[in-house]
Amino acid sequence: MRKLLLAAAGAAALTGGFASAAVAASHQDAAAETQSAANPLLAEWTGPYGGVPAFDQMDLQYLRPALEEGMNRYRAEIDAIAQNPEPASFENTIVALEGVGDDLGRVFTYYGIWSSNLSSPEFREIQREMAPRISAFYSEINQNKDLFARVQAVYESDAVETLRPDQQRLVQLTYDGFARNGATLDGEAAERYAAIQSRLAELHTQFSNNVLADEESYVTWLSEDQLSGLPDSLVRAAAAAAADRDREGEYAILNTRSSMDPFLTYSDERELRREVWETYYARGDNDDEFDNNAVIAEILQLRDERVELLGYDNYAQWRLEDRMAGTPERALELMETVWPAAIARVEEEVDQMTALAAEQGHDIDAVQPWDYRYYMEKVRQAEYDLNSDEVKQYFNIENLREAMFFVAGELFDFAFEEVPEGSVPVFHEDVRVWDVTDTESGDHIGLFYLDPYARTGKRSGAWASSYRGHSTFDGQETVLSSNNSNFIQGAPGEPVLISFDDATTFFHEIGHALHALSSNVAYPTLNGGVRDYTEFQSQLLERWVLTDEVIDNYLRHAETGEPMPAELVEKIRAASTFNEGFATTEYLASALVDMYYHTTDPEGIDPDQFERDTLERLGMPEELPMRHRSPHFGHIFSGEGYSAGYYGYMWADVLTSDAAEAFAEAPGGFYDADLAERMVETLFAPRNSIDPAEAYRQFRGRDATVEPLMRDRGFPVPREDAASEGEDPAQ
Ligand SMILES: [Zn+2]
After folding, report:
1. Is 2-211 assigned to CATH 3.30.230.10?
2. Annotated catalytic, 616?
3. Ligand 1 centroid, distance to 509 Cα (angstroms)
4. pLDDT tens digit string along 111-167?
5. Per-residue 3-state assignment (H helix, E strand, C coil) for 32-97
């Protein structure tokens, strides 16, 4: 569900922004000097398609020296700009900054692959050592007084008014990148700021490695007689996972979401469900060397202290300043509007489950958190006659990928053609690459890399990342975008069948890729995402999974090849608001706790206690947990990408529901050519070159409202909002 973040340096490292502050590491590695000439991680990307990463030459021995040399080169480029004898101008300062750091950026592409797709103890060792130094490096740049003086001179000059709007925005974003990150500080404050950044980088890495350690080291072992209720696909995957661990004949339920979730949905063994549930939700919370509670407390205190140096009341205030929501209050207002409807729905769902359990003669006192998925699946089958395993037969990932390409063709005029085998290096044999061209002009737009399957060392979940963004200021750069997921690979030759939810996530991630591929910005910084807005584009793409064109042509039964029957489609649609109490509540609980963490004075905070107290105050139902409990909430503690920002998914979903209604109402529906063109022009291509609120108004002719979201989730629409739009609240 999220874009790749470098755990080490934060997203800023990837986009050329400046995220931090600290004392520069003066350590010089002689080996780095001698190796740099031949270091493949630093080398210019060569080959077809404007040059591609040398993923076939990745070797960890090159990483440390490449990072060292990349930072040295970056530093030299920065010095040249800072020491330029000419007066500061837009061209020689702001635009010049857009061109620096390419060498280090290339190293970070490989670093990101090692961090997310191919992690290993050896890599984590390097990461632990280098993360604070990378952070210190960015701090050093951000604290470069000569450089900031020049940026400030341009920012304050009258010449800005003569620039194009996107150039004016670039000046603003560049200036903010410094000012919001400590450049205005002097003396002791600057030093303290730098020390905090360096320590935070260590803590973020530690947090994420602790979670991974708990995901990799805990396995629930099952024997043959403990498989009751489990679908064949899960049994096969569990057998394969056991074989991988040299325990042939047993079954391994791994401590990851993609194992835990289906197990809890189907297993008839209540005690085992409890065990798997407890193991999963205790990640980072086992009171051992990988426990994250103390890490969280220190992170919160340091974040708070850092923004206090800059004059903010709390971390969330600083964080949201350049987000679409603007303030923590506006984000909280949205969440608190939806929360009561969500927990009221949980109560109804629990009643349904309790009744069903009694009907089936199950002797459970009360629905426990490890029962929720299981009984909801039973309710789903009873109420909607919808069997998830039957539904899966129609979601073959190869067909879905073709469906995504079809949708991209219809909406974006993109054509996808797989590159000839061996023409583009990949970092694992599972990865496939497509050439993306414009269907009208035939122009090459970029490449699309897909890494679909789970493996040891790959982080869980699904995400998109770009190895290169679009820009034109220094010659045309084409896009290298990627999607990454954790589908369980079947036996050789067998189709990989996934759930409707996973199919939706698959479309979500291509939404991120299409957002990157459709960019028309001139400057790299303008590709940057506004966190509560960039999930919108990807969430919107999810809406195409169940369009008629996709159903008829791509959702075909794995064995019979028949398209999904109309009755089944209807059942899926009818069930779309099903379980929304669980889904919205588990999400909002995490999002609210995140926002409260970052608006509360963290002095002496005990995260465990804070989480419990907050949930109690919110009236959190006992029958389910937060989607991400604090000790493994990587979105907010493995880096700063989503800290005080997890709300952003719902913020974006307000836009998504509102925009989807525009398509539903258009003459050509979801394939309306005019509306699709306007969508690409206003919501995708400009990226961050215009204000997101303004972009949305250009698309919709007005601001988004919350009612479509409430309707989509089957919640009662708040009366006053309904009145203002003249909608039927009962809809
Ligand atoms: Zn996403």
Report:
1. no
2. no
3. 6
4. 999 999 999 999 999 999 998 899 889 988 988 999 999 999 999 999 999 999 999
5. HHHHHCCCCCCCCCECCCCCECCHHHCCHHHHHHHHHHHHHHHHHHHHHHHCCCCCCCHHHHHHHH
